[in-house]
Structure formats: structure tokens, C-alpha cells
Write the C-alpha cells for this entry.
Amino acid sequence: MDVSLLHALTDRVAALAAPSAMRPDAWPLGERVDAWARGRGLVLGEPDTTPLGRARCERLAARAFPTADLDRVDLFARWLTWTFALDDTVDHAPFAGSATAVHGLYDDLLRGVRCGHARPGARPLESTLVELWQATSAGTSRDWRRRFLAHMEENRDGCAEEAVNRRVGRVPSLKAYAALRRRACGPFMYDLIEPVLGVEVPVRLLATPDWRTVTEGTADIVAWTNDLVSHVCEAARDDAHNMPSVLAAAYGIDPGKAGEWVVERIAIRIGDVAAAARTLPGMLDLLRPTDEQRDAAVQVVRVLLDTPRAHVEWLIESGRYGPEAGLSSPAPGRRPAARLDGLASLR
């Protein structure tokens, strides 16, 4: 399994070949985010010694929001950094194999959010979450705040379920995996698109089948693409929570073949999202939103559709899953992963 499989996405879906936009201020943004992460204790030591230190979260934020207000993009990049720090925590002992430990960790995190302050001596994950929540939730509606916190609770439950699977050595079924992966892969991050843009999507739209396909489909594409490059690291610690491992177990095939099947599934899911996005204007007509609400929905969908290609390009330039993290070199005959323009816009 290697990052060269990402090239197959552009080969398989020819219409998705255009590069994503990049903010011209991405480098100074990175300096800001790095200084914040180090100052808050999320990143320790030399920058290239940990997956989080090598992640370059600002590059993903700069691609996902190429024209948004810099301070809001900075905030999104900080959320990305925090979310990867949380992910690194729950993927390792003592949390990796203990649902009780995961729930205990989340009890502390959510208590800080709801109380409005971290406990004295709280770990960086808790104190930075409270800081990020206060900076983000100001000006948002009660509906948005409830939705965000509900997604955090879904993340807690997904991580706890993964911990149980690891402890008993269970590989998730193919049928159950997609929903589990969405819960464990930071579903609250997609809610952050709205405060970054300074908009809110109409509540009635959120429950429609087309909107759910766009949001859940985007989450699937991002998660499964990530699975392609994180598989080596996760397999090394006997963690089966990635699509290649799930497919390999379900069909009795080797991981290399499973990786090719993941590419096919991603391509199909991209088609699902594109089809649902095309029908959303008609759904908006039925709901009769205000002009402001319609514009909010259009803006959020645009970011959602651009996110998979931004994520693929970030996977190439980030060091989070690079050789230092155990990612294998391209197999003989594969193209090197030095350059990938990523997924094209589905707009």
C-alpha cells in the first residue's frame, strides 16, 4: 500500500483532474498555526519528530478555504491540529483498547466546553478545546451549537467502538464500517465550514436525503482516501480500522488488491455526491429559503465539493503519513508521488 494509489483516482475519474486553489498566504498562516500549537503544548519537540508536527494542517485549511477571511482559516487550521492531536491520543494506549478511557477523556473535554473553562492543570487537549470553542461558537445559533456538540458525542461513541474492536481483535464488517468511520473521523469538522464562512445552513435542509448524501459522501471520500495512505501505519500496530483492511478481511484478498478496490469505491462515492449536489437547487426551491439561506447553502456545498481534492493534495504535501510515519515507497512500476494535482472541482 502506498500513496501512489491516489494517482488512480485521477485516472479513474478523468473529470477530477484540475488542481485545487491555494491561498497566497499559506506559509505565514503555517507559522501562526505552528506557534499556537507549540505554545499550547499540542506539539512538542522538533517539528519533524511526530506525525502531528509534520502534518502541516494549515495547507489543508488553505486549500479548503482559498478566499475566506484569514483569521477564520487560521481558526479552522487550529481545529484541524486539535482534531489530529485527539486522533493520535485515542489511537494509542491507554485509550486505543479501552472504551472506558475514551469516554473518560471525552467527559473531561465536553465538561470544559459546557462549563466554559478548563479544569486547573487540564491537559492541552482540554484547554485548547475550550479556547477553540469560545472563539468559534460566538455568533452561532443554538441549533448550530447543538449540532456540533452532537457530532462530538458521535465522535466519542465511534472512537469507543473502535477501542472495543481493538481490544477483542474484531475487524468491522464492510456493512458497518462506513458509518463507524464517519463517526470516528471528526464529523464535527464539517460543521465548522459555516462559522468559517460566516453563514448557517437552513435547518430544514440538513435532514433532506440530498444534503445527507453530499455531507456523508464527502466524509466517506475523505476518510477512505486517508485510509489508503494510513494503512501501513495502522497495519503495523494491528489496527484494522481502515478500508483496505476491512475489504481484505471481507473478501479474503491481499491489502494491495484491496487498495485498488478502495479507489473504485471512492470513485463511485464521488459520483453519488456529484449527483446529489446537482439536485440540491431543486430541493432548495421546494423549501423556499430566504436569499441569505440559499446563499449559505451554496457556499457550504462549494466547500464540501472542493474538500476531497484539497484533502488528496494535502496528503501528498503533508508529512503526517510520509516515510517517517511508515508509509511505504511506491511499488515497482508505479508512478512516484512527488506531484499530484488532486481531485478536480465537482461544481
